[in-house]
Amino acid sequence: MTNRLNLLARRNGGVEAMAGVESWPASALEPTLLELVRTRASQINGSAFCLHMHREEARKHGETDDRLLLLNAWRDSALYSARERAALAWTESLTRIADDHAPDALYDEVSALFSDDELLALSIAVAMINAWNRLSIGFRSRHPLDRRRAA
C-alpha cells in the first residue's frame, strides 16, 4: 500500500472541526446505536481503519461480537431492534444516496422511531462517518493489524 498523508498526525482546524461535530450526535443517541451506524457505513465504504475503530468502540459500550458479525446481514437477523433497523436502513440510504435519494417511505419509517432532534443527530452521524471514511480511504489510513505486521 502506498504511504500517504497521516491524517491523525495532522491536527489542524479542519480535522479538529470534524472531531468537534462528533460530540453532538453522541449527546443525543445511545452509544451502541451510533457505533452500529458507524460500523455499517464503514462496511459499505470499505474502510478497514474505521471498521476496526468502531468495532472496538462498540465492544467498549457492550455490543456483542454476534451482532457485530451479523451487521452486514442485519435484515436477516432478529438480533436488532426496530429502532436499530430503522437507523441502519437510514444509514445505508444516506451512505448510498445516489442510489435511492432517501425515499419518503424510509423517512416515514425512521421518523416514526426517532424524534426530530434524534433524526438530525443520526443523519449528522451518518454524514460524519462517511466523511471520515472518505478521508481514511483517500489517505490510505492503515488498519492497526497492518501496521503491526509491517513493523
State the shape: globular
Q: Count of helical segments?
A: 10
The biggest sheet amounts to: none
Amount of helix:
over 70%
Look at the helices and sheets and give the structural class.
Answer: mainly alpha
Radius of gyration: 16 Å
What is the H/E string? HHHHHHHHHH
The percent range for strand residues is under 5%
Mean pLDDT: 92
The rounded distance between the terminal residues' Cα atoms is 14 Å
Low-confidence stretches: none
Number of strands: 0
Characterization of the model:
Helix content is 70%, strand content 0%. The chain has helices at 13-21, 23-28, 31-45, 48-60, 65-69, 82-95, 97-100, 104-113, 116-138, 144-150. The longest helix is centred in the C-terminal third of the chain and has 23 residues, at 116-138. The radius of gyration is 16 Å and the shape is globular. The model has no long low-confidence stretch (mean pLDDT 92).
